[in-house]
Nitroreductase domain-containing protein
Amino acid sequence: METKEVLRSRRSVKVYDPNRKVTDEQLTELFELTTLAPSAWNFQHYKFIVVRDPDQKKKLRKAAMGQEKVEQASATIVVCGDLAAYRRARRVAEEFADKGFYGPDGDSKVEEQARMMRDTYVNDPQKARDEALRSSSLAAMSLMVAAKDMGLATCPMIGFSPEAVREAVDLPEELFPAMLISLGYEGDFNLDRCARLPLSEVVDIDRYGESFQPQS
């Protein structure tokens, strides 16, 4: 399916076929595509918890305000932001040097660059959280687009108790739940898509207040 068609046909599916399961092979392909999403310094500030055990689904559904699709879908994914992604700074700096990003004497800059990247987040917890939320959200959108292209259905969810989700899936302190995404095969779901705002309301040119008025 072409990318434009995927974006035009993707829906937030609320009803799933509980008898059709997503395989490990499908998950492998899905997450290989998902992790191609961009992230600052390629830190990949995310972690995904794929919840498919029936008992775990029950716990997660309770944490998600009783939303039926959490249990009905083949799996529900907890998309987490990683507040400690800076721990990969040295590995990233070494790869950047190997690829020539730092110039011909890149090896001599690895320690300095790794320290700079690490300190950027260690010294600014809010920036670390903002970046983790951005990166995990970019990855989440990539996941939903890839899933649609693979014939799978998804729905992002923000209706949940972060602490209850943390407890349900045993998240460590450095991870926080950014969103949940149900994943599976679409069931009996035929609601029309809700209208999108006209471009003149969401796109301005050059400065705020200069709305986009495309020429015909």
In short: The first helix runs from residue 3 to 9. The longest strand covers residues 175-184.
